[in-house]
């Protein structure tokens, strides 16, 4: 099973390379199943992003951006142990990595690879209900920011959609100079103003975007590992992401924590597929 919009026969022909990582070995969630997410997202893309008429597949058009001129290669699924080197090689070849998880801890390996390639700390835009900034425990999906500290420029980074933070995480974010944006902040200030704030924060640096699907309200995305009420509206998330992809110097992005066993009518998988397509289409 490949991503429907993948149009390159191999990585050498591609500008964008997609990796699936069917691994949840560092998740502590009681709701399991993110290891099945990469293929579930591909199936959802193939079901929802084209119509069949008179025996011909007709792709839908993204809301923003275009797929015209973009060569996409779906490299299939890779192991967690392979991920760092595969991303490093992709960047070294001048290609853009997109990763489908799996649990959120895999983001650390991607950040390490990009940092190793560029030699600079990244601005991180971290869409998540949780800051994942635990320091009293390490090497799991709740300590991603702690484990990635040497790769991230925290004062030039943000978490977006935060609403289920531990006190320890709040204190760690404050100490590091990391700004947390809650869904209530977006309601109060408006999505356009918040988006301007996000893009200004990341301006002038390479940016990595990590999207935990639990940033979205579980009414729209029930199939996640750790749902938390009061999340982002899907249209707001897509607006922010498409602007970020278009105007920031984005070095790659990932989509993680889809848990198909807990999904309802595949609505979270369909949303994940839409997020991936809109993000790729919005790249300059």
Architecture overview:
- It is globular, with a radius of gyration of 17 Å.
- Strand 9 (206-212), helix 8 and strand 10 form a beta-alpha-beta unit.
- The strands form 2 sheets. The protein has an 8-stranded parallel sheet with strand order 4-1-5-10-9-6-7-8, with helices on both faces. Strands 2-3 form a two-stranded antiparallel ribbon.
- The mean pLDDT is 97.
- The chain has a single domain (11-22, 29-282), classed as Ureohydrolase domain (Arginase, Chain A, 3-Layer(aba) Sandwich).
- 36% of the residues lie in helices and 18% in strands.
- It has 284 residues and is α/β, with parallel strands linked by helices.
- The protein has helices at residues 37-48, 80-92, 106-118, 144-147, 167-176, 183-189, 191-202, 234-247, 267-282; strands at residues 16-20, 50-53, 56-59, 72-77, 96-100, 123-127, 158-160, 179-181, 206-212, 249-256.
Strand content: 15-25%
Give the neighbour order of strands across the main sheet: 4-1-5-10-9-6-7-8
Please tell me what the overall shape is.
Answer: globular
CATH domain class: Alpha Beta
Number of domains in the coordinates? 1
Q: Which consecutive residue ranges, at least 5 long each, have pLDDT under 50?
A: none
Largest pleated sheet: 8 strands, parallel
Number of helices: 9
> Which structural class fits the helix and strand makeup?
alpha/beta
What is the CATH homology-level superfamily? Ureohydrolase domain
Which sequence of SSEs, written as H and E, runs from N to C?
A: EHEEEHEHEHEHEHHEHEH
């Amino acid at each position: 099973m490949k991503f429907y919009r993948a149009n390159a026969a191999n990585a050498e022909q591609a500008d964008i390379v997609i990796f699936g990582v069917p691994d949840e070995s560092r998740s502590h969630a009681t709701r399991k199943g993110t290891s099945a997410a990469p293929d579930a997202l591909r199936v959802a893309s193939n079901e929802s992003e084209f119509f069949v008429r008179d025996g011909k597949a007709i792709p839908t058009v993204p809301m923003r951006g275009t797929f015209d001129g973009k060569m996409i290669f779906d490299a299939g699924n890779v192991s967690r142990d392979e991920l760092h080197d595969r991303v490093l090689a992709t960047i070294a070849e001048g290609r853009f990595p997109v990763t489908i998880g799996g649990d959120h801890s895999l983001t650390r390996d991607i950040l390490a690879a990009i940092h190793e390639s560029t030699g600079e700390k990244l601005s991180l835009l971290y869409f998540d209900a949780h800051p994942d900034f635990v320091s009293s425990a390490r090497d799991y999906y709740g300590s991603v920011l702690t484990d990635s500290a040497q790769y991230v420029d925290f004062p030039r980074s943000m978490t977006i959609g935060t609403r289920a933070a531990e006190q320890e995480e709040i204190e760690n974010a404050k100490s590091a100079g990391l700004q947390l944006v809650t869904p209530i902040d977006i309601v109060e200030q408006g999505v356009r103003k918040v988006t301007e704030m996000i893009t200004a924060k990341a301006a002038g640096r390479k940016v990595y975007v990590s999207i935990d699907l639990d940033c979205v309200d579980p009414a729209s995305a029930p199939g996640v590992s750790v749902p938390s009420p009061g999340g982002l509206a899907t249209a707001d998330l897509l607006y922010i992401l498409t602007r970020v992809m278009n105007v920031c110097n984005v070095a790659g992005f990932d989509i993680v924590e889809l848990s198909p066993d807990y999904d309802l009518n595949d609505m979270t998988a369909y949303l994940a597929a839409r997020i991936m397509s809109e993000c790729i289409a919005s790249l300059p």
